[in-house]
Amino acid sequence: MVRVGILGGTGYTGLELLRILASHPEVEISWVHSERFSGASLEEYCPAWRKRVTLVISGREVFDRAREVDVVFTALPHGVAMEYIPKLLEATRVVDLSADFRFRCKETYEQWYGIPHKAPYLLGEAVYGLPEVYRERIRTARLVANPGCYPTSVIIPLFPLLREGLIVPPIVVDSKSGVSGAGKKASEDLHFCEVDENLRAYNIGTHRHGPEIAEQLSVLGGKESEVYFVPHLLPVKRGILSTMYITLAREVSEEDLLILWEQAFSKEPWVRVFPQGRFPELKWVVGSNFIDLGLRKVGARNVVIVSAIDNLTKGASGQAVQNLNVMFGIDERVGLPGGVLYP
């Protein structure tokens, strides 16, 4: 059994981790940590856990408890995770769900997050936790930087085309997310009356996932990628639908593009390529760890790509557990939800 601890277990991503790990046959949840709710049982904090998992939320010194487990998930805000991770790594392996170790470049992180990085020496060691791309490096990693939800929905469909030199910049990305992507912290913009029956773009040109997408696509394409990223807020709880607009470097048929995807993802348990003429929808992925992909060629060299994920599962906690499976030699399908919450 892989013994795990969860640091920051009472937010949406922490609770989603618990939902998944509680059903994982090769995992033992040793502890869940939250200073704010220390001493409360899980069922007191969240009645959904009644008759499911009996755990008391710990407030004990987390660095001592790190030695009790094989891996710690840090489901903490950016800026906070980096306070803990260097010392945690002295005792165990870490899967970090914050943004603190996703960037290779310290200056890029500091520019977009507005704070100094306190452990820049770990940026070169951290492995970007996208198993479909970096599986071999994840296997032996001490520190896995779990990707952002929007970047997951964009990088997976684009990297096979980049690898073949098929994309001419710029790449235009239009993404729409459910409200849970903003986390639990109260905000007037996220009040029911502000979100319900509404759709709005936000953080145009300033969203922090934009440079994360651009950096990874640049690495995978071998040259700088110009990305225009516009996120939108949907009046739903969960899910991301991303639409990408690209120009091909040379003429390739729609059929051949789909074949390229099929070849790239035929052995990927959580990537589903839709047949010609079918396109992803949120209702086919919510609650699951799947990413669904579809595309249509428009004109000689223009392609529209659509992807769909659950932002809390494949976009966060499910992907973190998929990384755990890779790190400990477990089949990547084990313990992860394939069932979709439909209808």
* Main β sheet profile: 7 strands, mixed
Helix percentage: 25-40%
According to CATH, the homologous superfamily of the largest domain is: Dihydrodipicolinate Reductase, domain 2
pLDDT average, as an integer? 95
Cα-based radius of gyration, to the nearest Å: 20 Å
Series of secondary-structure elements, N-terminal to C-terminal? EHEHHEHEHEHEHEHEHEEHEEEH
Distinct helical segment count = 11
> CATH first level of the largest domain: which class?
Alpha Beta
Q: Give the strand content.
A: 15-25%
- Ranges with pLDDT <50 over ≥5 residues? none
**Broad structural category:** alpha/beta
Total domains = 2
* Record field, number of beta strands: 13
Shape: globular
Q: Which CATH architecture of the largest domain?
A: 2-Layer Sandwich
CATH names the topology of the largest domain as Dihydrodipicolinate Reductase, domain 2
Catalytic activity: N-acetyl-L-glutamate 5-semialdehyde + phosphate + NADP(+) = N-acetyl-L-glutamyl 5-phosphate + NADPH + H(+)
Keywords: Amino-acid biosynthesis, Arginine biosynthesis, Cytoplasm, NADP, Oxidoreductase
Function: Catalyzes the NADPH-dependent reduction of N-acetyl-5-glutamyl phosphate to yield N-acetyl-L-glutamate 5-semialdehyde.
GO biological process, one term: L-arginine biosynthetic process
